[in-house]
Amino acid sequence: MWPKAPGESAWGPGCCGVGRWLEFKARLRFSAGMRREVKELVLDNCRSIEGKIKGLTDEFEELEFLSTINVGLTSIANLPKLNKLKKLELSDNRISGDLEVLAEKCPNLKHLNLSGNKIKDLSTIEPLKKLENLKSLDLFNCEVTNLNDYRENVFKLLPQVTYLDGYDRDNKEAPDSDVEGYVEDDDEEDEDDAGEEERSQKRKREPEDEGEEDD
């Protein structure tokens, strides 16, 4: 599994093995046109070098979902500019700051998972205020969650956030569609539109068919 046609996914070594991952890296390097079509990219468990993941560039113009779980990141300062990115998985890294770059590089981000990082205080996540579309934020297993009135203060600091660690202000669990799968939701909408168009065309043909039977 690697970059395919528009809307299909590309996967990393976490689910396809080292041998296939090496082939995947080769495709990242040589298929610029393919990079521009990928919407989902999973690079879990690969290794970053000085905060960079080789092959991950701003050529992924259509990318909406990026997962870089457990890749050894200590900073996201070198994240490429991904204007269409909606969901970013950064859990189980060693990130402790530099979150201000997200507003510049991923301005349309809706879902951000920072679980298992070295985030200790509220001032570290304050730059996320500039992500006006941010709807869901996860900070599980970060030290900041041990602060007094943690949830209340985060919601106050980031009023645009609806779900924190999977729950809203009233401790109601987020529907699965809100926590994950928004890219799939877009695909479902496209399928619904296609189905409605097909039904509409069928309805238009039915009167003609009836007229032919009368003749």
Automatic annotation (TrEMBL):
Keyword check for Nucleus: yes
Native source organism of the sequence: Mesocricetus auratus (Golden hamster)
Keywords: Leucine-rich repeat, Nucleus, Repeat
Gene3D superfamilies in UniProt: Ribonuclease Inhibitor
Localization per Swiss-Prot or TrEMBL: Nucleus
Superkingdom: Eukaryota
Keyword Nucleus: yes
Functional description taken from the UniProt entry: Multifunctional protein that is involved in the regulation of many processes.
Skewed-composition ranges (Acidic residues): 176-196
Record-given protein name: Acidic leucine-rich nuclear phosphoprotein 32 family member
Domain U2A'/phosphoprotein 32 family A C-terminal: residue ranges: 147-165
Chain residue ranges for the region called Disordered: 166-215
High-level lineage: Eukaryota, Metazoa, Chordata, Craniata, Vertebrata
Family: Belongs to the ANP32 family.
Residue ranges with Basic and acidic residues bias: 166-175
